[in-house]
Specification:
Helix 3 packs antiparallel against helix 4 and helix 8 packs parallel to helix 11. The two termini are 46 Å apart. It is rod-shaped and about 100 Å long. 24% of the residues are buried. It has eleven helices and no strands. By secondary structure, the chain is mostly helical.
Amino acid sequence: MYKFDAHELVQISHLMGQIEGLVRNTNDDIFLPDELINAAPANLNSLKSSLINVHLDVSAGFVDLMLEAFSKKKNFLEIAKTISQLQSSIVIELKQRNFIGLTSIEHELYNQTKPHMGQEVADKFPSALYEIDEAGKCLALGRATATVFHLMRILEISICAIHHCLSINVPLVGNNRNWGSILKRIREEIREKDKQNSYQWKDKDNFQDIYARLDAIKDAWRNKTMHVEIKYTEAEAQYLFDTTNAFMQKIASKMDENGVLTP
């Protein structure tokens, strides 16, 4: 797969029109005047560059034939034949390709000109950056289930941070990835710390909020475990992306990926 801007195709069409204009209204057996011959290479080289940018390599090769024809000062009929060959080549190569267009919103998701989940998440959860970027790309391309897979890995990083912060020494493997078990451990640890610190535990409300948000995400996940075991629709993936985004921003405002609380 390769990526290019759509304006390259517009540029190709524009340059083809300019090249055709150079030789238009010229008799078949008349050799092109020097001013036309001298003007052609600049347009042809620009055209070749655009064709290479969109990987129409065979067509780019035909441009070399056109450059040769102009350099040898061939007549209009011979030049016209090379133009026709180039046009046919472009059409054939384009038919062998599929092009996917992105809306402005999808373009931002795919290219991520700014952090999808905010700068604070990017700064405090660097190990999640790849997954966040891939989740955005998959969402932009309509790959809903793949989006959810990357969101799951983002949540796993955040849950590990919560475990560290609450001193829960249980790895997220096997049955420990069960949503019920995850939430139970967090809920029990919140209660235990609340008992130990009574009303002096200033983070009680924050962790209760974190627990409530995780519980809401669990319902949207539709899986008993933190595995992508079913197919998701684009609407479901978008909702999970948004809820994960809000959750990560909440977590990042309180701790980093090592579970160190923000002062």
